[in-house]
Specification:
alpha/beta; Rossmann fold; seven-stranded parallel beta sheet; 8 helices; globular; EC 3.2.2.n1; LOG_family_nucleotidases; hydrolase; Cytokinin riboside 5'-monophosphate phosphoribohydrolase
Length: about 240
């Protein structure tokens, strides 16, 4: 019987003690992923994460922008971290790899779509079962986020970062949205509805991210940020 079947059986039979034991042992799996991530990423140096859809084809303009972002960032000594999969993630790793820079992949085990790409450094590939642990690694070891068009996962990572910076839970770092056509409607809604109509955020919260159209603008925003601020751990 698999772990999932044991848990389902325990719920069906209302065996709460068995469920509690299963949850307790799961803690060790969670701890192991944290320890492995911290040990492998602690010495990688300054890195920028590139986010975006796993479904983006090589012929898409945003794929090329992600490749160029990876190249520009590594030219200035930054490593590149991605979610390790295909699409935009592959493109970011490709740009870093082809330029001889550090190329890190934080892959997640999913039943579809996600498999690690070939441009990740062999000693900088991590595999995760838990999304929340993977997100901690992005937040802890990234000195900036470049966010290209993506789906629900990309939105999750974007707003996680904005929330943690907004609430002072982590140090501020630059967040760049690439693609005015893609992100413009969302940014307008944040300004017009979230801020001006409902007053659910402060006006200065809009300064936590920048909207651009090119790889050069994205990289330059990150470079300018660290001309002003000192690189330091996020938490």
């Amino acid at each position: 019987m698999t772990s999932e079947e044991k848990i389902r059986s325990a719920f069906e039979n209302k065996n709460w003690q068995e469920i509690k034991v299963t949850d307790s042992w799961q803690i060790f799996k969670i701890m192991a992923e944290f320890v492995d991530g911290f040990e492998k990423l602690a010495k990688i140096g300054p890195c920028v994460s590139i986010f975006g859809s796993a479904r983006t084809a090589e012929t898409n303009k945003y794929y090329e922008i992600a490749v160029e972002c990876g190249r520009l960032l590594t030219e200035r000594g930054y490593g590149v971290i991605t979610g390790g999969g295909p699409g935009i993630m592959e493109a970011g790793n490709k740009g870093a790899h082809m330029n001889g820079g550090k190329s890190v992949g934080l892959n997640i085990d999913l039943p579809f779509e996600q498999f690690h790409n070939k441009y990740i450094d062999h000693n900088k590939l991590l595999e995760f079962d838990y999304f929340f642990i993977r997100k901690v690694m992005f937040m802890k070891y990234s000195q900036g986020f470049v966010v290209l068009p993506g789906g629900m996962g990309t939105m999750d990572e974007l707003f996680e970062a904005i929330t943690l910076i907004q609430t002072g839970k982590i140090a501020r770092f630059p967040i760049v949205l690439v693609g005015k056509d893609y992100w413009g409607g969302l940014v307008d809604w944040i300004k017009n509805t979230m801020l001006q109509k409902e007053h659910n955020i402060h006006a200065e919260d809009l300064n936590l991210f920048r909207l651009v159209d090119t790889a050069e603008e994205a990289a330059e925003h990150i470079f300018r940020f660290y001309d002003k601020y000192v690189l330091k751990p996020n938490f």
